[in-house]
Amino acid sequence: MLRKAIPLPLARKSFALAAASALIPWWFAAAGPQHGARGTGHVADTRSQSLELSRPVRPWEFLCAVGTRAGLLGNEAGRMEAWVYPLKLLRDFRLQFHTEGRVFPAETLARTLITRPESSTIIYTSDTFSVHETFFVPVNEPGAIISLEVETEFPLEIAARFLRDFQLEWPAALGGTYSSWDKDQRAFYLGEETKKFAAFVGSPTATEARGEYQTNYSESAVNSFHLGVTNKGKDTKLIVMAGSLDGRPQAEATYKKLAASYADLLRASAEYYKQYLNDTVSVELPDAQIQQAYDWSRVSMVQGVVNNPFLGTGLVAGYRTSGESQRPGFAWFFGRDSLWTSLALNAAGDFATTRTALQFVSKYQREDGKMPHEIAQGASFVPWFKDFPYGYASADATPLYMIAMNDYVTESGDVAFAKEKWDSVWKAYQFLLSTYDEQRFPKNFGIGHGWVEGGPLLPIKSEFYQSGLGAEAIRALSNLARLTGKDAIGTELAQAFEKQSSKVNEAFWLADKQRYAFALGTDGKPVDEPSVLATVPMWFGLPDQKNASAMITQLAGADHQTDWGMRIISDRSPKFSGGGYHYGSVWPLFTGWASVGEYRYHRPQPAYANLRANALLALDGSLGHVTEVLSGDYYQPLSTSSPHQIWSAAMVVSPLLRGMFGLSTDAKAATLTFAPHLPADWNSLGINNLRVGENKLQLNFTKSAEGIFLEAGRTAGAGESIIEFRPSISLRATVQKAELDGKLLAFRVEANDEDQHVVVRFPVSEGPKLLRIFISNDFAVTATQALPPLGSASTGVRILSETWSASRDQLTLDVSGASGAHHELQAWNAAQIERVEGAELKKKPDGSILSLQIPGSGSESYAHAKIVIHFSDAQGKGKRR
Question: Using CA atoms, how far apart are residues 476 and 801, in angstroms rounded to an integer?
Fold first, then answer.
């Protein structure tokens, strides 16, 4: 059972116990019912005992087990390929079951999938036997193990079959490869003429080996072996794959180690992920699905770390099968992918992985300062940066490098790394300056693509996305300069940022359309194509508040926002195609950008819809992973999508921590900011392992009709930290007073057109701090999204905007939903409602709801509705300081 945030009356007594148990992940507790799970029918069942996910097999879905040095990539039918980076060993690995004089292809009996951070299992079942096939890749070993747990009534023998590839990852290649059976190791030996690359594929119980052959009369590319007969009852068999980039003896040693130490290695890998989740920011949420999606997304991100002996250790972009090619999805290193992911890693407190990623990309910085776009795992075998066009193809990796470096140093406090890399980031800035056009905007055309790499949205001169990143990079460098003692440069850059930010806002804003242009065209004029890419400058707070909010309202419409995320452009655009990679599809990356930007500009309704869409994707499709790209028309991934995409997983983490929770850390100032915009039905949550310099903090949040309560304490470290708490409340609400440990605490209220925030600051050192903020007449309403059936179009409801009357006694909701559909909205603190127009207020055991019917609208699939909520006149009169 998920542990709720600690109630305030019990908090002081229980805090010491909570602090002592902070490193014990709640998801290893005894199994029990989960709080707040919301049904989506087809979403995988969850288990509260662990992160285990399970559902019936979907043969077409991607399945993988990966470590830092090897990977098994395949599908839920059990067809796999094996890699020891940068070497592909084999493909089309599959099982056959021999029993009662018959041979069953394993894929015909695949029934259930179970996946965990360290392994994945397919359960095959017939009338008389069951086989659990577990795919496992140790975290730091160059190989893989497949365990087969057998239970049978009659004699059963399992055969394994595969096709040998034994080739380097694209674009490199090996010549003169071969295979042979090694009877001592009971394995196929895979080799090549230089004897540098080697591999073994076999089993300690292997028999009846049959190898590939080619003659004048016949040929076969299949290699196979049997695993020995299980006569009756239970048995366990192992299949081992091991590779070496340094000759046969090393491959043989790894093969023997994997075969002999399977159980120990499996335990060690499970402990590795358990410890990783313990050491990074953990949350305790009332929504079980977002809870599990967040935990899985942290795992997915760190599974992007790959150690290539020839190139170094960095973050790859994602995983997908390569089939007959040598290109496994995007399982090679990308600059901008790792940099966007680093922002989520920093938010989660995994500074070590961010530092590794930054170190890697800086290693391949071009002499003129430009940062790399992609580095294939086979790059060391070919003149990659000279003869291939991909190495420095993007323009956005360079400003992102500066932004990511500043974010890492600010959040972690690792100023020494900033000093070490100062020349590198300064050189990146010089390259950025060299790309400026006559208006002093960083160019894409002739320099490198921004976000859009091709399609009908091009050609352009500079994307709003790219110009926004360029401006933010100046601010980032200004802060890095100050942190490293270069105050004069910092001041000069701060002034340059103010000018550049203002220029970007003016040049891209279309006042008559109340939105931002997608780009400046080759003629220097704005290109009026509203796009979710505008939310990237919003992520960094660059646009004007009023303009950004107007743009968000447009992006919240059903033409931009689907039930599964954000389209790049409106489906009403003549350039739109639902399958268009850069002109109509839905990327979880876009969805995450939008969510963080929308939360930053106090628009929690579309922000929550986008966060929840990404979270649900992690529990559907390839279980535990978020795919790269989906159709803009129907809920299904594009056929070319990489199903385990690293920056897509990051876009569950960043929208939750940076977006909904508004968490940010200034390690040098020892300050943590917590500025939550919570859904109406979230009354409590906990956040653990928040790193502020050398300290770790724990927060427990609760709210009621009387106010907001926060318990904060230090669980590790010795110094004092400052917490700036800025919770969102409605424009109707009134703050009565704030108390810290029973004593009055100064506060102020900051209002905007959408909401208001109570702002308090207080120190945390030894012992818990108990904060009470007494509030009257707060109110919230939320639409909770679900994924539609696979292959379906959007049907969900959206709250496009909220407008309060000047006297705060009336709230108008502009709502959009499928024509003729019925929907329910969650309402919090509804006792103050006097009456409702356009919906019916209903009481339910778990809270109040607004029940509404969307009107029909002819041929339009979506229609608008208006809800007007009238409140009683009785409002508390409180102080605002």
Answer: 32
Q: How far apart, in whole angstroms, are the C-alpha atoms of residue 828 and residue 814?
A: 18
pLDDT of 27 over the 90 cut: no
Spatial contact of 377 and 169, defined as CB atoms under 8 Å apart: yes
Distance CA 124, CA 698 (A): 44
Residues in the chain: 881
**Are 726 and 694 within 8 A, CB to CB?**
no
Euclidean distance between CA atoms 652 and 873, whole angstroms: 40
Residue predicted with more confidence, 873 or 817? 817
Helix residue spans in 556-660 (DSSP H): 588-600, 604-618, 646-654
Q: 759 vs 599, 750, 829, CA distance in Å? A: 17, 7, 22
Q: How far apart are CA 652 and CA 655, in angstroms?
A: 6
Other CB atoms within a 10 A radius of the CB of residue 266 amount to 17
Instruction: Give backbone dihedrals phi and psi of 148, rounded to 5 degrees, phi first.
Output: -125, 110
In whole angstroms, give the CA distance from residue 102 to residue 390. 51
Residue 47 has what pLDDT? 34
As to burial, measured by CB atoms within 10 angstroms (0-12 exposed, 13-18 middle, 19+ buried), residue 690 is buried
Closest CA to 809 of 719, 749, 733: 733
Mean of per-residue pLDDT scores for the chain: 92
CA neighbor of 89 nearest in space, from 243, 256, 250: 243
- Other C-beta atoms closer than 10 Å to the C-beta of 369 total 20
Q: Which helix (H) or strand (E) holds 135?
A: strand 129-136
How many CB atoms are closer than 10 A to CB 393?
Answer: 15
At 377, the amino acid letter reads: Q
Q: What is the DSSP string of 489-508?
A: HHHHHHHHHHHHHHHHHHHH
pLDDT above 90 covers a percentage of the chain that reads 90
> How far lies 86's CA from each of 177, 333, 703, in Å?
16, 12, 52
Euclidean distance between CA atoms 33 and 52, whole angstroms: 15
Cβ–Cβ < 8 Å for 714, 721: yes
Nearest to 88, CA basis, from 166, 200, 197, 163: 166
pLDDT band at 450 (very low <50, low <70, confident <90, very high): very high
781 and 826 Cβ atoms separated by less than 8 Å = yes
Query: Cα–Cα distance between 687 and 760 in angstroms, integer?
Result: 18
Q: For position 858, what pLDDT does the model report?
A: 59
The encoded tokens of residue 614 equal: 């990404």
> In whole angstroms, what is the distance from residue 714 CA to residue 429 CA?
38
Distance in angstroms (rounded) separating the CA atoms of residues 757 and 675: 8
b/e per residue 40-70 (b: at least 16 CB within 10 A): bebbbebbbebbbbbbebbeebbbbbbbbbb
Q: Quick check: 1 pLDDT over 50? A: no
Query: What integer is the mean pLDDT of 764-770?
Result: 92
Q: How many CB atoms within 10 Å of residue 728?
A: 22
Q: How many CB atoms lie within 10 A of CB 221?
A: 11
- C-alpha–C-alpha distance, residues 550 and 606, integer Å: 13
With beta carbons less than 8 A apart as the criterion, state whether 650 and 345 touch: yes
